[in-house]
Amino acid sequence: MRILIIEDNKDILANLYGFLEPKGYVLDSAINGYGGLALAAEHEYDAVVLDVMLPGLNGLELCRKLRGELGKATPVLMLTARDTVEDKVAGFESGADDYLVKPFSLVELEIRLRALVRRARGVQAGATVLQFGGVSFDTDTYEVRRDGRPLALTRTGYTILKCLMKEAPRVVTRDTLEHEVWGDERPDSDALRTHIHALRQALDKPFPTAMLRTIAGVGYKLVNPDEEG
Question: What is the pTM of this model?
Fold first, then answer.
């Protein structure tokens, strides 16, 4: 597994190399945002470990450029010292797939990286085009469009949308979505909510009619705007 680490704390970087390299991971690293972006543009990685507070180009800006300018769907695990819901939402909206608060366990970091890569490969293996209510989702190329307009999602956003589109217009429970995204390695209770918020920003905010609906106490579903009263 090839991992790109973008982290300016030399102690953290050394710990990551010392823990992951003996396990067979191939690691590249950068200590600033622009260096990390250049490596991401030049090479293909299975995942990116990205610090938020970086010199030159911070992690949020880098992640936006990774998703937008470079068009990379590589899973991103974001590292930060901040753990508020607002900080998590900002990270997910920038394109991150998971969020780990410093100080963190190296064992947990590896577990999360493996989970991200498994989900990414699972999406690639299930190549098909899903369509519902003006939304098309090619799970082979990761191209999502609504009414012909391209949408940029996080890797986790792709997983959630895929599950919702397969079941639409039926309701998908929170438990089902959490299991689809994290399996048995479920994070804190705010994680799904923040990913749903990020998905809603991409899927609904630019359009006059919302498709992603919350069913209080149950879960979420997609509705077809053309069939709404």
Answer: 0.59
